Protein: SMP-30/Gluconolactonase/LRE-like region domain-containing protein
Organism: Ramalina farinacea
Amino acid sequence: MFLALVVLNTLFTSCAAPFPTRLIYETPNPTWFENLATRHDGSILATTVTAPTLYLVRPDSRKQSPKVIEGFNSNTGLLGITEITPDAFVVAGSNFSLTTQAPAPNSSYLYLVTFPSRNSENPTVSVAAHIPNVALPDGIVTLNNRTILVADPPNGAIWSVNIKTGAYSIVSSDPLLKGTGVDGLKLHDDKLYFTDTSERLLGRFAIDLKTGIPVDNASVVARYPDDPPVVAYDDFALSRDGKFAYPVIAGGNSVTQVNVLTGKQVTIAGELNDITTAQPTSAAFGRNGDEGILYVTTAGGLGIPVNGNETVGGQIVAIRVGAH
Ligand SMILES: *[C@@H]1O[C@H](CO)[C@@H](O)[C@H](O)[C@H]1NC(C)=O
Ligand SMILES: *[C@@H]1O[C@H](CO)[C@@H](O)[C@H](O)[C@H]1NC(C)=O
Ligand SMILES: *[C@@H]1O[C@H](CO)[C@@H](O)[C@H](O)[C@H]1NC(C)=O
Ligand SMILES: *[C@@H]1O[C@H](CO)[C@@H](O)[C@H](O)[C@H]1NC(C)=O
Ligand SMILES: *[C@@H]1O[C@H](CO)[C@@H](O)[C@H](O)[C@H]1NC(C)=O
């Protein structure tokens, strides 16, 4: 295991792919960053599945270590994260074993992380819902100020969860979700986009914005090419204008841009043998002046080592794609 030291670069460096990238933070220990969201002030909240922790990382901090938020005591690791009301985030937790690649039964939770004031870095963490029928709460997205949608890959389903009452039910088990890999969820207007990693596809359907229930059948927006046969389309970001999706290619150590109208896709950062984006897991746009920056979390190759045997700490990488 190659243990990298914390590295903080200050300049964007160009590589073969078209957009410049910059390492924001790399953990000193093997750490699987699984997902992320950004706060109003532009800071990044990144979940880890290797421990029940949430990292608060400031992209402009040159020397400060990230703040590690704890208190997710019902779980061994964290997955999806979404802002539900201003500066309050819902975070999914599971006892997911990286060894067996399976979650412990009865271990799916949703937590509410609430910052008491805008400048606070000390949020309260509480259990919002125990959702044992969800086998694995992976990517999550906010539907309204009390409801989130949850991707559940083992069940090939999307659930709606009311975090005030804890009530939850399946809103879709569309055939396109059946690949046991429904992973990321993002909403633009009434279009719910999803990735299915096992099927290497990005799909979408229209939903009823009150209930989250689909009003049409899912359709394929794009499929990742079969060659090379890498694990593709983990979680993703959607541009604010809803025209581009940015799925990460976990096994390709790269990030792709998909035009959701045409399905055309291009690699925008990283490449197969490149450790600078080592097994990316998700992406999110910056805020507070960083709207043109796409932040990417990585597992550091813990699950899929780069070049077969290279791993690094979990990374947060910035890609300057421009605001859109
Ligand atoms: C999940 O892990 C937590 C933290 O180690 C533990 O307290 C809890 O009992 C586990 N739950 C299940 C269902 O295994
Ligand atoms: C599931 O977990 C809850 C909370 O820890 C516990 O009360 C319940 O007995 C568990 N159910 C099963 C079937 O293990
Ligand atoms: C949540 O949304 C509802 C419906 O839009 C609104 O009436 C309510 O005030 C909101 N509550 C909070 C806490 O924002
Ligand atoms: C969805 O697909 C089913 C099965 O192919 C079909 O019967 C149904 O009409 C479709 N619904 C819509 C809204 O297109
Ligand atoms: C990876 O494997 C190659 C070929 O066997 C070897 O030369 C290299 O030192 C290994 N690297 C690490 C980080 O273990």
In short: The chain has one domain: 21-320. Residues 21-320 form a domain with the Neuraminidase fold (CATH 2.120.10.30).
